[in-house]
Specification:
This is 2-hydroxyacid dehydrogenase. Keywords: NAD, Oxidoreductase. It comes from Nocardioides ginsengisoli. Belongs to the D-isomer specific 2-hydroxyacid dehydrogenase family. It is a single chain. It contains 11 helices and 12 strands. The chain is an alpha/beta fold and about 325 residues long. It folds into 2 domains: about 5-100 and about 285-315, Rossmann fold, CATH 3.40.50; about 100-275, Rossmann fold, CATH 3.40.50.720. The protein has a 7-stranded parallel sheet. A 5-stranded parallel sheet has the order 2-1-3-4-5. The chain starts with a strand and ends in a 12-residue tail after the last helix. The structure holds NADPH dihydro-nicotinamide-adenine-dinucleotide phosphate (NDP). NADPH dihydro-nicotinamide-adenine-dinucleotide phosphate binds near residues 105, 154, 157 and 233.
Length: about 325
């Protein structure tokens, strides 16, 4: 019996790439635009499923070139890399990988907050450069007991909040809707939230609704003693405004896992010692990536078996 044809949209991890190849007739979408057009003309009619990750785009014209496409299984909880309206209009199912990455991303947010406030990276360089023998390292700012605002108190945001409670932090948040059953203070807007905290952590989804939701007004509300942590998407911050605020000393510091045009990082940021930069590794642990991979493959297998998904994206209804 012939196996379903599954299109792998790069980049996929070697493990996910191999696992799809073991189970299905797998094709790889070429990265070169000309090669891609010829490839789709030849193979587009065979493809019934896509496997993608946040780093690989699934735009409307790709979906349109795959007339038999029935499912997009995305490894990642965010799916702003996919043209979801184009998929749903065709009745194409879309899955993501919620919950299995909450702990890893929350750990990353805490690591960034501690690294920026306690100047962990700068202090490490200080020791390595032999500066310690010449004098003490300057004092830093405490995270424990500080006021932290969470923009996006969802699955990951609440996992971050639980960690911060152990640190004795005062937690407030902004979502479009209040979260029932939590005691954290609700702020009516991102600017109001920023105005009332020492540290602001962004963990909202990317996409049009949150594009530059952290703009100059929010950054100025956070102020010269404030720190921004972004483990959401680069698109949620006005990156030019962020760089300007840091250059002009209107913002105290930043810890960033995500950027507007990854893997490009504004050159100004790489020279600042009040900024910690990570290469989008929020969920990148062995344990979590294995769990994300399993859930992606299970969604794919489930859909191919009986047309259901374990974790459909919210727009599909659960
Ligand atoms: P959830 O859907 O559980 O939570 C998202 C939260 O954001 C909800 O509380 C939601 O509340 C709020 N929100 C959504 N839209 C808006 C808006 N326009 N304005 C204000 N608040 C909003 O998602 P997760 O916690 O699972 O994941 C959050 C995001 O984290 C992902 O979408 C992804 O982009 C990012 N992420 C980054 C990773 C990394 O490697 N750095 C890894 C994993 C995830 P409400 O609906 O009430 O507004």
């Amino acid at each position: 019996m012939s196996r379903p044809t599954v299109l792998r949209v790069p980049p996929l991890s070697p493990q996910l790439h191999a696992a799809v190849g073991d189970r299905y007739d797998a094709l790889d979408l070429p990265t070169d635009a000309d090669a891609r057009a010829a490839f789709l003309a030849e193979h587009g009619g065979d493809v019934v499923a896509i496997v993608s990750t946040n780093g690989g785009r699934v735009p409307g014209d790709l979906i349109a070139a795959l007339p038999r496409l029935g499912v997009i299984a995305n490894q990642g909880v965010g799916y702003d890399n996919i043209d979801v309206p184009a998929a749903l209009e065709r009745g194409i199912a879309v899955s993501n990988t919620p919950e299995v990455l909450d702990d890893a991303v929350a750990d990353t947010a805490l690591a960034l907050l501690l690294a920026v406030r306690r100047r962990v990276v700068v202090a490490d360089l200080f020791v390595r450069a032999g500066e310690w023998s010449k004098g003490e390292f300057p004092l830093t700012d405490q995270v424990s007991g500080s006021r932290v605002g969470i923009l996006g108190l969802g699955r990951i945001g609440q996992t971050i909040a639980r960690r911060l409670q152990v640190f004795g932090c005062t937690i407030s948040y902004h979502n479009r809707h209040r979260v029932p059953g939590v005691s954290h203070t609700y702020a009516a807007s991102p600017a109001e939230l920023a105005r009332s905290v020492d540290n602001l952590i962004a963990v909202v989804p990317g996409g049009a609704a949150t594009q530059a939701i952290i703009d100059r007004e929010v950054l100025d509300a956070l102020g010269p003693d404030g720190v921004l942590i972004n483990v959401a998407r680069g698109s949620v911050v006005d990156q030019d405004a962020l760089v300007a605020a840091l250059v002009e000393g209107r913002l105290g510091g930043a810890g960033l896992d995500v950027f507007a045009e990854e893997p490009q990082v504004p050159a100004e940021l790489t020279t600042m010692d009040n900024v910690v930069l990570l290469p989008h590794v929020g969920s990148a642990t062995h344990e979590t990536r294995a769990a994300m991979r399993r859930l992606t493959l299970d969604n794919l297998a489930s859909w191919l078996t009986d047309g259901t998904l374990l974790t459909p994206i919210p727009e599909m209804g659960r």
